[in-house]
Every structure is written in C-alpha cells, then in structure tokens.
Input
Amino acid sequence: MPTPSLILVPARFKTGKLYTPVATTSGGVVLGASGDFNVTRATTATRVNASGLIESVASGIPRLDYFASGGVVGCPALLVEPAATNLALHSRDLTNAVWSGTTVTTAKNAVGADGTASGATRITATAASGTVLQALSHASQSRVFSAYIRRVSGTGAIQLTTNGGTNWDTVTITSGYTQVASVARTVASGTVGIRLAVSGDVIEVDFTQGEVGPVATSPMATTTGQVTRNADVINLSGAVSGCIGQTEGTMYLDFIFRRPRVDVAGLCAISSLNAQNRLSFWNNSSFNTVAVSFAANNASVFNTSVGTLTEGTRYKLAIGYKTGNSAIFLNGVQVGSTRTDAFTFSTSLVAIFLGTYETGTATITNTGINAFTLYTTRLTNTELAALTA
Output
C-alpha cells in the first residue's frame, strides 16, 4: 500500500485548529502547521466525553465525541453539525412552570446526563397516560422533539410527541441515558412532550430539545430563552494542494452515517474552491443515501449513489480517480463497475472541506468522522478494497 499524503485521525487540537498527523506533498515536503485544519464555531457546543457524559466545549474547539464513534473509550470521532436552535425552554427542569404535567409527579432530583447531581428531572406516572408538555411557538415547519431519557422502574411504553399528542411515537429506552426522538413532523406552534403509558412507571429526563429539521442534534441546554449552536466549519486550503492528487489520487472517509437536517449536505470534499473542479461525498436526508459527486473543467464527470445506508452505522468509503480509470469502494466492496470517464482539472485542487461541500459555504452535514485520508496516487482496486474493509 502506498504512503498517504495526508492523514487525519481526530485526536490533537487547540482552539481553532485540528492537528493533522501526516501532511506531506507529492514532492516530499512536510507541511507542518500549514497542514492543520482550521476550525470555526462561534458558540459553545456539547459532546459525549470518554466517560459517557455530556460536556460543554468552548467556541472554536473541535468536538471529539465518543458517542459518535460508538462509545468506545479511546476512539472518538470528530462531531460535525449544522447550526441549530433549541426551542424548548428550561430543557433540564421539567418541574418549571413552562412544562405542564398531567397525572404525573416531577422532581428535579436526578443525576443528569452530564453527571451533575439534581441536574435532571424524575417523572413518575400517577395514572395511565401521564404527560409532561410544553407549547412551542413558531411558523409551520418540520420539527423534531428529543430528550435524554433513562428508565428507573416499570416496563410501559414511553412516548414523545412534537404535535400536541396528535401523534405519539414510542421510543426505546434503557437504564442508561439515551437520546431518543420523535418522528419529525411539519407543525406550527405545536406542543412537545413525553407520555408514560403505564401508571407507576418512573423515568429520568434530561436535555429536552425542540428543533427545526428532521433529526435531533447534540444537546443545547436552555433556561428562560432559546439557545442556538453555530455550525462546525472545518477546512484547509493553500499549501495542502501538494497533498491532493492533481491528475490521479485517492480520497478516503471513515464516518458515521446520520441523516442531515436538509435533503442534501456534504460529507467531505477536495476542490478548487468552487464547483468547477471538485470531488465530494454527500448524503441525502430523504433517501438515506450517500453519493460521490465528481466534476472537472466545469462539467460533471459522474454522480453515483453508493446505496441506502443505516442510521448510526459506521462506513468506510473511498474513491480512486484517474482519467479513464476511477473506482468507488464501500466497506470493502466495489460500487458499480470501474469508471472509464476521461477528465482534466482546469485549475488545481487547493482545498479540503470536512462536513460540507466544495466551497465550504454550503450546508453543513450531521456526522461523526473517524478518519480522512488522501493519496496522490490512484490506489488499485485491491488496495481500495483493503483500505475500506
């Protein structure tokens, strides 16, 4: 297997930077600091740490999230998310007056999902179909309601609503905190909440969240007002062009598949800072798919779906590209046949984007990145199969 020109395995960082362990041009020049990714997010945000607890990180700090990698200590993934706003107030205190309880008792005396004593709310059903609800006011749009919930006792159904109880969605919970979510539905000024189907059942609830869009994102704690988290913007340009194959090469991404908040969002890309010359992986919310999009000299070379993927599952995707000889592999298996499309980049590929498209200004995706790698040669199909296995 040839030596990669660039390897990113998220581990070391500082404010505004994500360090790249290897960034070497095809001419053998080691880039050093100019090979490190820039990170921008102008707000605090949360992640799941190595102890499995939610914690806040400062603005501009990349989020190494252990849930995004499956919760394996020592193996975090880079969490990349779009901007989002939590519309639900007092998100950690369901005893507050903004929440209305019916045939339940609520007490803010539970250890929170962040490990804080009395950080979460215990809810006990005093009759069947006990509810805790909050009315949200906004224009008609797709919205999802989520919460971190764990079961204390009982076996009855636990359900969430995002439209005032017109629909109740049963969620699966365990004895440990898990973020669960309703089905996204288009509503205007709808009420969100939780229902316990069986009298006597007890649950603990933390980090409730009402968001616009089809998927729940990382927690944004609120009190008296809504809270917004800015997007994670991660990119690198300039001298890194020497790490990108300009006539042939390979791009590899190890990622956790999650549906994006919009129909189409980029996973990663190399480009000439525009759509005229670029190679990108992107995902589609409506169809749970990922595709490879390739353009050169302002013309599409090909746009190929790699198939329907499973939410929350880890995948390894790579493309080896060379004029008249390009191939895509997913988890060790070739997608379609080897491509014979001819192409020539009219300008150099000078930039890398993680979590978005080829210009860095398009919609941010919703994913966990375990590794990103470039080669300045087109790996053989045998090597691509081994790399993605």
